[in-house]
Design a protein that fits this description.
The complex is a heterotetramer of chains A (about 375), B (about 180), C (about 290) and D (about 675). Chain B is built from 6 helices and 4 strands, in the order E-H-E-H-E-H-E-H-H-H. By secondary structure, chain B is α/β, with parallel strands linked by helices. Chain B has a single domain, classed as Lumazine/riboflavin synthase (Rossmann fold). In chain B, helix 1 packs across helix 4. Chain C has about 290 residues and is of the alpha/beta class. Chain C folds into 2 domains: about 140 residues, no CATH class; about 110 residues, no CATH class. Helices cover about 30% and strands about 10% of the residues of chain C. The radius of gyration of chain C is 20 Å and the shape is globular. The termini of chain C are far apart. By secondary structure, chain D is of the alpha/beta class. Chain D contains 18 helices and 34 strands. The longest helix of chain D is centred in the first third of the chain and has 20 residues. Classes of the chains: A alpha+beta (about 375), B alpha/beta (about 180), C alpha/beta (about 290), D alpha/beta (about 675). Chains A and C meet through helix 9, strand 11 and strand 12 of A and strand 2, helix 2, helix 4, helix 5 and helix 6 of C.
Chain lengths: ~375, ~180, ~290, ~675
């Protein structure tokens, strides 16, 4: 029988093979993370949500989870509530722990090597975000924990099957079929997926399970599948672009030069500063470091997610707070993502996943805000008046 | 991790302890009635279980439910909260305010699934040394029957590289705690 | 609706107030609106999507709202209760705000809908069922015509709490550890709560740090219990904490349980009467104490 | 980094018997922050304290934990020692391993383990103790004495003689109290009036004593050293400055048939009256309830129906339109001496008491109580000292004295012994026999309680010399039988039923605290027992103090007392007050709450729960001085340190010194060492 040609980087993998591949990985003890539909109505939680009580289709939560079984794999799902970030920068993680003996203190750091793992069907906006954060994590300080996890993880993206009115990846240089930050990209085609391995890690995955892949060299559908894939992907880009189109560069520069502009200065009025947007954001990476005691003279130093939307984020020991209301705090969020970060690292600190907009029940709408800034940036005179 | 530092306060509560389990009970008592009542129990040489550790406060009015939560976090299997009888408060009304706070706290803990028998509330006056003995012994008996509060300890963070607090996993623990709750 | 817009316009024009805080229609549905220009008052709406408890914007620590000037706030009955709460706790002076009450027949569970939907047992916010304050008293203006009672939801909050109470202890423990386990400690619940107005939340106090900062199950448990207790006898049941929770923790069940406790034990129902002193911080000599030995 | 010293006391064998003290000291050695540990036989002994002081100096300790007995026992001792060694005394705490450990456990292993835990817990607390300064509050050196019976007068005189002003408040028109009604006093039989009157006058004329009769305490604010007392001066209708006590008005008054309170109802008085001839001040009051003029006014008659007293008064001292007035006094200490009232066997009883139907509910004439007999026997009384029975003024030939009427009778609601009755019954029997030589005095008693100097001899004299017949037993019925009062009793010694046809019966009715004592106690925030007697701070060691600092108690308002006891208590309160006044400031433990103005939002929850009203709102201003909000402020003088404010503070913006959150948090943390 014919095996995949290692030189080629595009393969076809059938639904069954993909499931089998997952099974093999799990069998080999490799952690496999993928979007999983969680039945939030599982008893006794059912009573928690009216959605569960409604007749007809039951609601589900989509979460990136470590698969227990290949059967859980389900590539039809939309965007998980929390981004893939949590697997590289967990909500909280230990940095070290200490114990005091009399007047001596013993400190123990945590290991920074991690077992290899695979992410399947990652959202392109999520993998792209990792690549963006890589910049800061390897800037003045090389973050072992972040990089350790990055290196140990092979990420296989799936070109987005689901797009809604809050998606705007194309407006910030990403795409629904992007492989940025990932090692391979899956695209749905009839009978299975096209798999493009774009990095060594990606190719290694293919080689390790070569029996599951067919090189797209032979005739007999390859070309058709290729076309089908290309059309699907183009269509998706168009659908996203319909939500928002901006000139990221002029937005970046305009923000940089219009710090006090009313448009920026009054952004936070309806914002509650809850920071839910940062929690769900794939690119927000700010953390706080806390020492948590476990008793007398012993405890753990942990870092946990923090958000620039919280007053305490910039509260000085003196009691002075340079960002003393939600206006400057929200401006900071926009400023950092679309101006400061791009100017420093050449990357927008946003991949257009739209989670912040979806999660905000106060109606802060990033699509709308970027639109407004874009208009101001393109027509300075309009903004001036 | 074998070479990790064990920082888990509740290390000794490893499941094996289940037989011959000795409950750890923290008592938050007011200085004027119950603490003095406990003194009287001492001067009257009333023998009682040795599982209780007393934290002295000026008044039950000073007691914040966070004290009790922290005690559970720190490995207590049960708590006792005790102060002056109504109308006897050294500060006139501290215990009345405490009584309402505890009622609400008690209700919430029950909703959440904490067995109320892990929390003993009592009024013990300065002259009730014997009652204090009884409160202590009863609390110890109850909590011994319920077993270790592993369900709460299992909430402790599990960090890579830091020895996880002993005791079964959250699910297992709650199940076992539940089993005990039903048994007793 | 015109009634509302006209009043808003007058109040702004004659500078009775400098900003009207109400609701508007936006790209993704209804959302809070801050109207400072009389010309914009036609943006104001009130329909079943106007779920938001706008009282959260009266938090004295919201400088960016305060600097807009004297506020005219549109309130539903439940929101008015929150205003009373702030008055009760000296966080607000009645004369500093103009309250525009709207007669309310209940709201939907979610605000992010293209247009208002009539209320049905499937879509009505459960908290609206049996509402005792659909025509707020604590207002300067009361608008709209009398509204019908909200429909009975598929399952009322009380029924949910009862269903939960009926579970054995270990089931409840499993349920809540799962729910609180999801918490990412974004504190959205606190930020949107109209009554959480502390300058420095106890969760942020570091000496000592009663509530562990990182989002592990133990810290989450401590935080969620404390949040609930701090609202005992104060919570107006607006449900914003639950609606804003990004991970969907059913906080209104805890809040409702607290309302039941203070109701049953102390005969207290939170109302929009500022004189109706909160039950915690008060006491009766003969308060129930069956749980005390 | 803290350097705590741990000192484990053996307390002889008391602790060492069940706790391995050396092991405790050893275990604490490597406890974080512990710099020194030691165990010793008697830590509270002089060498023990020396050991502590030396260790503090040698190891420059920042904190001290003495693992020994209860802090209620020796905390002061060791804090003093720490202080002498140059360590702030509030950096020293006790770990209670005796009362709470060695005395209540047998197993040495268990007890030792627990003792180690207890010590660790307190070490953790001490690590977070703050060096504190005692609070100093100014003292107003003026005393208020409530009640001007013998106890109140004595207390007032002692304080006044000590050189401090006294405000003496008496609700009746005259001072003197019950003692002024007595004829002779036991066990010396000297005339009550003769020894009391000079004291009354002395009090009245004392330059340091301001007397307010016909007045009551309306309201008490503040705290020890700084009370503000509002006094109600009831409308007297007679101007105290103008009246010269001539008594013409009394003669002129047409309403002459009003039962005299002073004469216990055995005589009549006028509506405008002086309670008794020797009254101090000797100024009448107008009893508006019984006054003809006021009756007319109440009927709403157009013109005044009387006015005779005013017409006769040459000094123009009488004014029918005066009203109650209020005065406020700044006071440093308060003595409560409101005395007693007699239990009445009648039908109508205060809550918890029952009357004596079997004795005829006091409706049988010639069944009188002890005070009435005092008036009969008193030379200044209605009968000028002749024993004549009320019904027909006949001299009674057989008088029955019944002990314990109400007293020691839980069935009637009074479980306690009224203490003085045995003695005054003996006195009454004696006085009767002295006046009616051929008379028969029979006493029914439960036991004779004659503890006291010369008391037993006195009661024996009544029996042995004056021939009073004492029958041990209770009286079951008293009823009128024609001309006589039939008394049915039971002699428990002979086991026989006894029936006596008496001419008069004297009931030794129980002593009760004055009516209204509970209301007064509330104003003073002192507690009362189930009978209404005021609770002392400690039954043995602090008998004249109450649980409210600065409020003292003397005489029969604390428990049944006889005259010498009441006077002794009064002088004791005098000494306490003078002690309090001896310093310009008084020191208090700094266990008070302090507000963090940076995080307080002025929500007033704390103020709502403060039992002492110690918390008020305070404006806070920005640097440029404009008010930017309100925060809570705790008045350290008023705060008593219960900490309720801290528990209700949502943002934890108030800290109770000596029991801070950090201290308690760390104590709880110490529990992690359990294993």
């Amino acid at each position: 029988m014919k095996h995949a040609d290692p030189t080629s980087t595009t393969y076809f993998i059938s639904d069954d093979d993909l499931r089998a591949l997952t099974g093999e990985l799990l069998g080999a003890g490799t952690e496999v993370i993928a979007p999983v539909a969680v039945d939030i109505c599982a008893s006794p939680s059912a009573i928690a949500s009216s959605a569960c009580l409604r007749p007809g289709v039951k609601p589900i939560d989509i979460e990136y989870r470590a698969l227990a079984d290949a059967a859980e794999l389900d590539l039809s799902r939309g965007l998980p509530v929390l981004s893939l970030k949590q697997y590289f920068l967990p909500e909280y993680e230990a940095l070290c722990c200490w114990r005091q003996h009399g007047v001596e203190v013993e400190v123990k750091a945590v290991p920074t090597e991690f077992a290899p793992r695979v992410v399947l069907a990652a959202k392109p906006c999520d993998s792209a975000a990792l690549a963006v954060i890589d910049k800061v994590m390897n800037w003045d300080y090389h973050d072992e924990l972040w990089n350790g996890r990055r290196e140990a993880t092979t990420i296989v993206n799936l070109a987005c099957p689901v797009i809604d009115e809050s998606c705007f990846c194309t407006a910030v240089g990403a795409a629904p079929d992007d492989d940025k930050g990932a090692d391979a990209l899956l695209t749905r085609v009839e009978g299975g997926y096209l798999m493009e391995a774009t990095t060594d890690k990606g190719r290694a995955l293919v080689e390790a399970h070569v029996a599951r892949f067919k090189a797209e060299t032979d005739a007999g559908g390859a070309e058709r599948r290729g076309r089908q894939a290309a059309e699907e992907r183009a269509a998706a880009r168009v659908r996203v672009a319909a939500n928002l189109e901006i000139d990221a560069a002029s937005v970046r520069d305009w923000i940089d030069t219009h710090f006090e502009d009313p448009l920026l200065a009054a952004l936070g009025v309806r914002c509650n500063g809850c920071g839910a947007c940062s929690s769900v954001c794939p690119t927000c990476h700010c953390f706080d470091i806390v020492d948590e005691e476990e008793g007398i003279g012993k405890g753990t130093r942990r870092r946990c997610w923090d958000t620039c939307q919280a007053p305490t984020f910039t509260l000085h020991a003196s009691g002075h707070n340079p960002r003393d209301s939600q206006n400057p705090r929200y401006r900071q969020r926009i400023n950092h993502k679309f101006s400061i970060y791009p100017l420093k690292f050449g990357e927008v600190l946003c991949t257009g996943c739209g989670r912040c907009t979806r999660v905000c029940h106060a109606g802060q709408d990033l699509v709308e805000i970027l639109q407004a800034i874009d208009i101001a940036a393109r027509r300075p005179e309009a903004a001036a008046t | 991790m074998s070479d990790a530092i064990d920082i888990s306060g509740a290390a000794a509560t490893a499941g094996g302890e289940a037989d011959g389990f000795e409950p750890r009970i923290t008592a938050f008592v007011c200085n004027w009635c119950t603490y003095t009542g406990a003194d009287l129990a001492g001067t009257s040489r009333l023998h009682m279980a040795s599982n209780v550790r007393i934290i002295r406060l000026p008044c039950t009015g000073r007691i914040d439910p966070l004290f009790i939560i922290k005690a559970f976090e720190r490995g207590a299997d049960g708590v006792i909260v005790s102060g002056c009888h109504p109308a006897d408060c050294h500060y006139a009304s501290g215990n009345y305010h405490a009584r309402r706070r505890f009622a609400v706290f008690h209700g919430i803990m029950e909703l959440i699934g904490v067995d109320p028998r892990r929390m003993t509330f009592s009024w013990v006056s300065a002259s009730e040394g014997a009652k204090w003995r009884d409160v202590v012994d009863e609390a110890v008996t109850n909590v011994r029957a319920l077993g270790p509060f592993d369900a709460y300890r299992a909430l402790a963070p599990k960090d890579a590289g830091v020895a996880a607090p002993a005791g079964p996993s959250a699910a297992a623990a709650s199940a076992s705690a539940g089993a005990k709750a039903e048994a007793s | 609706m015109n009634e509302l817009r006209e009043l808003a316009c007058t109040l702004l024009t004659d500078s009775t107030v400098h900003v009207i805080i109400g609701w508007e229609d936006a790209r993704r549905g209804a959302r809070p609106a801050f109207i400072t220009d009389p010309a914009d008052t036609d943006r104001l709406i009130f329909d079943t999507r106007c779920v938001h408890d706008l009282v959260t914007y009266l938090d004295p620590r919201r400088d960016n709202v305060a600097e807009l000037g004297r506020i005219g706030l549109v309130v539903k009955g439940c929101d008015a209760k929150a205003v009373a709460g702030l008055l009760r706790e000296a966080q607000l002076t009645r004369d500093d705000i103009v309250l525009i009450g709207v007669r309310c027949g209940g709201v939907l569970e979610e605000a992010e809908l293209p247009q208002a939907a009539p209320l049905t047992p499937e879509n009505v916010a459960p908290r609206c069922y049996g509402c005792d304050n659909r025509e707020p008293a604590l207002v300067d203006h009361l608008l709209g015509e009398a509204q019908p009672e909200p429909p009975r939801p598929i399952m009322t909050i009380d029924e949910r709490v009862a269903a939960l109470d009926a579970q054995p202890l270990e089931e409840r423990w499993a349920f809540w550890t799962e729910q609180f386990g999801k918490c990412v400690r974004c504190y959205a619940c606190r930020q949107v709560c109209p009554l959480c107005v502390c300058e420095r939340c106890v969760a942020e106090k570091t000496r000592p740090r009663w509530i562990e900062a990182s989002a592990h199950p133990r810290g989450n448990m401590s935080w969620n219990i404390t949040r609930a207790l701090h609202l005992a006898g104060r919570c107006v049941g607006c449900g914003e904490c639950e609606r804003f929770c990004p991970v969907g923790i059913p906080l209104s069940l805890v809040n409702r349980k607290l309302q039941q406790i203070v109701g049953e034990r102390y005969g207290y129902t939170v109302s929009d009467d500022p004189e109706n002193a909160a039950p915690i911080g008060d006491y009766r000599l003969d308060d129930k104490q069956e749980f005390i030995k | 980094m803290s350097r705590v010293g741990v000192f484990v006391c053996h307390c002889g064998e008391n602790i060492a018997r069940t706790i391995d003290c050396a092991a405790v000291a050893e275990a604490l050695k490597d406890h974080p922050g512990v710099a020194f540990t030691e165990d010793y036989k008697y830590m509270c002994s002089d060498p023990g304290q020396q050991l502590v002081k030396k260790a503090i100096e040698d190891n420059d300790l920042t904190g001290v934990v003495v693992a020994a007995c209860s802090p209620h026992m020796h905390e002061k001792t060791f804090r003093r020692a720490a202080d002498q060694a140059g360590l702030n005394k509030y950096m020293c705490e006790m770990a209670n391993i005796r009362e709470h450990c060695s005395w209540i456990h047998e197993d040495r292993g268990e007890a030792t383990a627990k003792a180690i835990d207890i010590s660790r817990t307190i070490v953790e607390k001490v690590k977070h103790n703050q060096p504190l300064e005692s609070i100093r509050i100014p003292v107003t050196k003026r005393a208020l004495v409530i009640g001007a019976g013998i106890a109140g007068i004595q207390a007032a005189l002692d304080i006044a003689d000590g050189g401090h002003e006294v405000v003496l408040v008496e609700k009746e028109a005259s001072i003197g109290g019950h003692m002024s009604q007595l004829s002779e006093t036991f066990p010396t039989l000297d005339c009550s009036q003769c020894i009391l009157t000079p004291r009354m006058v002395e009090a009245y004329q004392h330059p340091n004593i301001t007397l307010h009769t016909w007045s009551e305490v309306e309201k008490v604010d503040g705290y020890i050293g700084n009370f503000t007392v509002k006094i109600r001066k009831k409308a007297r209708s007679v101007n105290e400055d103008l009246c010269n006590g001539c008594g013409d008005c009394l003669a002129a008054c047409p309403a002459k048939r009003i039962p005299s309170e002073f004469e216990a109802g055995l005589a009549r008085r006028t509506a405008i009256y002086v309670p008794f001839p020797q009254a101090v001040p000797n100024i009448p009051v107008l009893d508006r309830v019984n006054c003809t003029l006021f009756k007319g006014r109440r009927k709403g008659l157009a013109k005044e129906v009387c006015g005779k007293c005013k017409e006769t008064c040459l000094k123009g001292a009488i004014d029918y339109d005066t009203e109650d007035t209020f005065i406020e006094e700044e006071i440093g200490a308060i003595v409560v001496a409101t005395g007693f009232t007699l239990y009445d066997i009648g039908r109508d009883q205060p809550e918890g008491l029952k009357g004596y139907g079997e004795y005829g509910y006091g409706e049988v004439p010639d069944v009188i109580d002890g005070l009435q007999f005092e008036r009969l026997a008193s030379a200044s009384g209605p009968t000028a000292g002749a024993i004549l029975r009320p019904s027909d003024g006949k001299e009674p030939k057989t008088v029955v004295f019944v002990h314990c009427v109400g007293s020691r009778d839980p069935e009637k609601g009074i479980s306690y012994c009224s203490k003085i009755c045995c003695m005054y019954n003996a006195k009454h029997a004696m006085l009767y026999k002295h006046k009616v030589h051929d008379g028969r005095a029979v006493a029914f008693y439960m036991d004779i309680r004659a503890g006291g100097k010369g008391y037993d001899e006195f009661s024996r004299r009544a029996i042995e010399e004056d021939g009073a017949e004492y029958i041990r037993g209770r009286v079951s019925r008293i009823f009128r039988d024609g001309d006589v009062v039939s008394v049915w009793g039971y002699d428990t010694l002979s086991g026989e039923q006894v029936v006596i046809d008496a001419d008069m019966v004297v009931l030794a009715t129980a002593m009760r605290p004055q009516d209204g004592i509970r209301e007064l106690a509330q104003k003073l925030s002192v507690s009362t027992d189930e009978h209404g007697f005021i609770n002392e701070a400690h039954p043995k060691l602090r008998p004249v103090e109450t649980n409210t600092a600065g409020v003292f108690v003397a005489g029969a308002c604390q428990a049944p007392r006889d005259i010498p006891e009441a006077v002794a208590m009064a002088s004791a309160t005098g000494a306490k007050v003078l002690g309090l006044f001896s310093a310009d400031e008084l020191e208090r433990e700094p266990a008070v709450a302090v507000v963090d103005e940076n995080t307080c939002i002025g929500c007033t929850r704390c103020a709502l729960v403060c039992p002492y009203g110690a918390i008020e709102q305070r404006e806070i201003c920005t640097v440029d001085g404009h008010v930017c909000g309100h925060v809570a402020y705790v008045n350290p003088g008023v705060c008593q340190g219960c900490g309720t404010c801290q528990a209700v503070c949502l943002s934890k913006s108030v800290e109770l010194q000596t029991f801070t959150d950090e201290q308690i948090f760390s104590e709880i943390n110490a529990l992690c060492y359990w294993e």
